[in-house]
From TrEMBL:
PANTHER family: SEC63 DOMAIN-CONTAINING, TRANSLOCATION PROTEIN SEC63 HOMOLOG. This is J domain-containing protein. One of its GO terms (molecular function) is RNA binding. Keywords: Chaperone, Endoplasmic reticulum, Membrane, Protein transport, Transmembrane, Transmembrane helix, Transport. It comes from Oppiella nova.
Amino acid sequence: MAGSKFQYDESGGTFFYFLLSFLALVVIPSTYYGWPKRQSKDDNKRDRKQCHCEQCAQKSSYLSNREPFLKVKQRIIKLFLILGWMALFACAYKVAHLTNDYINWDPFEILQIDPGSSTAEIKKAYRRLSLVYHPDKETGDERKFLKIAKAYAALTDEEARKNWETYGNPDGPGAMSFGIALPSWIVEKENSFLVLGLYALVFMIALPVAVGIWWYRSVKYGGDQVLLDTTQLYYYFIHKTPHMPLKRVLMVLASSLEFERNHNSEVIERPSDNEEVPHLMKLLPNLGEKNKERPLCFTYSIKARALLHAHLSRMQLPPHSLDIDKLYVVGKCPYLLQEFVQCVSQLTMLALAGRIARTPNLDTLEHTMKLSALVVQALWDSKNSLLQLPHVSEDMLRHFTTRKRNVRNIRQLASMKSDERRSMLRNLSDEQYEDVMNVISKMPLLEIDVRSEVLDDEDAGIITAGAIVTVTVSLCRQNMSVLFDKEFIEEKSCIDNEEETEDKENLAIGEAGDKMQTNETALKKPKVWEKQTKGKKKGSKSAKTKKTPKTAAIKKMAQNQSQQPKETTEANNQVIAVKKSKTKESDGESNDGSERGSDDESDVENSERTVSKATEEVSEHEEEEDNWDDFQKSVTKKKEPLEGKSKMSHSVHCPYFPDDKQEYWWIYLSDKKRHALISAPYLMTNLVDKEEVELKFTAPQKPGQYTYSVIVRSDSYVDFDISKTIKLDVKEAPKQTESHPQWDISEDEEEVNKDEDSAVEDSDLVNSTDESDDELDD
């Protein structure tokens, strides 16, 4: 059996094929994703619409100076990509001009004779070439002579000729050779030390060190890139003080271990901090530096707390020392506060489950969410929210609250008339006023719609005690520019507008059906055995949008009359014709009415039965379609979490925040009477136009009326929170009777058993009568 032989590429041909494919897989995607892009015209238009206040200019310069070598990096990236494409084209040119190393072995060609030559001619050619290439001759060539001898043996020896004809080789089947797309100099003895050293450096030193560093760094962080030690610190203080005021939350936030040098190597400790930090502490009242709790009393915690106080007060700090540290601390705060909110909600859920004794107060959660917006906008909670606008100072706020006008938030300012707004902001120049309007026009205007139901239940509209209630919150975001030059604002959600259009359609269809109903009342009376449709449809639809079988049938006949079965249309025409004929007869012919009334009434009843069957089929078909649509929506909702969650929504105007901030929204359910959290907060990071979120919680165990509040809070803007009240009517849970499945007997089985028993009794009676007759005969 032939073996196998591995050989390296001595000519280097196959190696170029490997190199070409490798370069193509690296260079093409790198060029597509990594080539530096120029600023387009659309970006220039966006820059014109941006704010040009002093703080925004400082922020843009800070962002540009944060990467001083950005242009150099872009040039280096371009250079490497160009070199990669040059190498790719060079490899492609080399591969296109490579010669095939495989040569078909032909003995006739080696002996320089024709394939049909005789044995004498073969011997003559061999002798002639031997005299030339024999090693003993002056013009001899050992390799060439071996080929000639091998070709002569293949043509003269019977066994060698047979092997050549069968295997293509006079020596018989050879070993299977595998070519390796690497040059042969890699396995040469002279280069073995270098090759082994390179392998050891890459696979024994560099790779284990890289994996170890990655593991050591990743094991210290949680899912949101927050240190696990910081999360444990939050749990400890939340459990210690369930009710935290705003400054207490700020104090715990400043003690995060992300600001400590031993846990974070990015933190810079300067010698100038010994002089600048104490001087800053003297300028800040109510800093709480005398607190003895650990780690609240540590140096790094006091410094971070002082920097946050200075940021909220919008104080000017030394630009080359404390100001840089302040921007670093402020940039970390949104992620840390998100982790703080998650810790509070988890401890609250554990307390509701009875696993821990202390329940965190709802104020702690709301203060944490409020602090996030305050940090982004650099405001204290006691300041006016209008200070979020550019060029607006505290001295100008007295013009906003007068006898004629009482403007206390940005939404009221956007709802004013343009001339009144300009007169109120008369101290601003035209450019400054344009900046204010550009910022207001991009701020969010939310409209929410809430519906509650019990999923996976036969009747989703009825909420029973202990059931899992799903509250679906639909958010619709618009720019605040829709409020410009509008005196009266109707707060209607996007879903309500859709419901209004459905109401108009149903009313228009109902007008067509009312004519039939008025005529039917004279002939048809409500029967006792007919079902009366009561109650509302499943979900949060109003009574106007409820689809009864009759309205559904009328709608179907009005829109798709050509697609309906012929029987229903004929039955409808028959009903109308009979009604018209009967009205004429009642006016003119009163003598024959008694005789024809019974026939007409029977015809009407038959036609009405056909119409009722058709309407029932249409309603069942529509219910199946609704159920299928609900099922598809549930499937898509289940697939959305698997696809990943986007973190791009809308940019926030925050000139005092060091990075580009996107709009995020916290959505949760609370009970204001008990001042308790009902559902875990959900952080929505992808609200661009419309989004939905489901909040689930367990209904109370006692039946009754309960009032909850759905609250939507912004983590970026102050005084942009929205709340909506929902009322739940919790019914008593039905009692479930436990019965063994083998003991359950249906009504049909009971009737069958009764029939069998009666049949047995009848047979016994027959047998007894037969026996008595036999006795009498005897």
